[in-house]
Amino acid sequence: MKRAAPALFLKPLAACAALATLVLAAPQAMAQEKTLRIAMTAADIPRTLGQPDQGFEGNRFTGIPIYDSLTQWDLSKADAPSVLIPGLAASWAVDAKDKTKWVFKLRPGVKFHDGSAFNADAVVWNVQKVLDKDAVQFDPSQVGVTASRMPTLKSARKIDDTTVELTTSEPDAFLPINLTNLFMASPAHWQKKFDAAAGATPADKAKAAWTAFAADPSGSGPFKVTRFVARERLELAANKSYWDAKRVPKIDKVVLLPMPEANARTAALLGGQVDWIEAPAPDAMAQITQRGFKIYSNAQPHVWPWQLSFAEGSPWLDKRVRQAANLCIDRGGMKQLLGGMMAEPKGTVPPGHPWFGKPTFDIRYDVKAAQALMTQAGYSAAKPIKVKVQISASGSGQMQPLPMNEFAQQSLKQCYFDVQFDVIEWNTLFTNWRKGAKDPSANGANAVNISFAAMDPFFAMVRFVSTKTVPPVSNNWGYYGNAEVDKLVADARTSFDDKARDAALAKLHTHIVDDAPFVWIAHDVGPRAMSAKVKNVVQPKSWFIDIATMTME
Question: Among the record's GO biological process terms, what is one (predicted)?
Answer without folding.
Answer: peptide transport
